[in-house]
């Protein structure tokens, strides 16, 4: 499968409406190998967290599992429908509770730490990241793209993230700290 990166020469954009938010917890975070290739031109990057369990595959790639009750919507092949769904749910999340404080051990859900990225070019950005993550709406996919509440300093915002099914991959190792990897210098 060929990866389609965003143009690395793309200039950084002025902060505009910020129409697309994506929570990243692995190789798309700052300092990791896919950030510069797929996230150049990001409008805003904030430390954030979600409720879930974080695992690592034998290939050192992270897999996030989130509780079904936190999924607000499932990603589609229609970028503008997904952006509209995210915008519509933004106001409804003002009173959403923060994730539980327990660690992510067997059977419970803990905090998974990552970054909330905001972009203003969903028509090119989302399909490129979908391809990177192996997300194919309506077909077999490595990851699913779902909309979930993402917490930033006690407030929740809906954001898209890519989640895997740990039941389908028996070689996963739980990361109880909720933080994956170390950035490369």
Q: What does the model show?
A:
The strands form two sheets. Strands 1, 2, 3, 5 and 8 form a five-stranded antiparallel β-sheet that branches. This protein has a three-stranded antiparallel β-sheet with strand order 4-6-7, covered by helices on one side. The chain has helices at residues 35-39, 79-90, 122-132; strands at 20-24, 44-56, 62-65, 73-74, 110-119, 144-152, 155-163, 173-174. It has 185 residues and is an alpha+beta fold. Residues 1-18 and 99-106 have low confidence and may be disordered. It has a single domain (20-174), classed as Gamma-glutamyl cyclotransferase-like (Hypothetical upf0131 protein ytfp, Roll), CATH 3.10.490. Strand 2 and strand 3 form a beta hairpin. The chain is 15% helix and 29% strand. The protein has three helices and eight strands; from the N terminus they run E-H-E-E-E-H-E-H-E-E-E.
Mean pLDDT: 81
Largest sheet, strands/sense/barrel:
5 strands, antiparallel
Global outline: globular
Counting structural domains, the number is 1
CATH superfamily: Gamma-glutamyl cyclotransferase-like
Question: Summarize this, please?
Answer:
15% of the residues lie in helices and 29% in strands. The protein is α+β, with helices and mostly antiparallel strands and 185 residues long. A hairpin with a 5-residue loop joins strand 2 (44-56) and strand 3 (62-65).
């Amino acid at each position: 499968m060929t990866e389609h990166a965003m143009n690395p020469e793309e200039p950084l954009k002025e902060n505009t409406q910020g129409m697309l938010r994506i929570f990243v917890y692995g190789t798309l975070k700052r300092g990791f190998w896919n950030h510069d290739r797929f996230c150049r031109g990001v409008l805003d990057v904030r430390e954030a967290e979600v409720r879930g369990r974080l695992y690592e595959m034998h290939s050192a790639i992270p897999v996030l599992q989130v509780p079904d009750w936190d999924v607000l919507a499932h990603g589609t092949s229609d970028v503008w429908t997904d952006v509209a769904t995210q915008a519509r749910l933004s106001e409804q999340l003002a009173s959403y509770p923060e994730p539980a404080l327990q660690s992510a051990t067997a059977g419970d859900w803990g905090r998974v730490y990552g970054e909330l990225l905001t972009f203003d070019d969903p028509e090119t950005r989302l399909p490129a990241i979908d391809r990177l993550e192996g997300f194919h709406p309506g077909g077999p996919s490595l990851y699913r793209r779902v909309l979930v509440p993402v917490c930033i300093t006690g407030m929740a915002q809906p954001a898209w993230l890519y989640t895997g099914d740990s039941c389908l991959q028996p070689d996963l190792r739980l990361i109880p700290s909720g933080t994956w990897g170390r950035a490369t210098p």
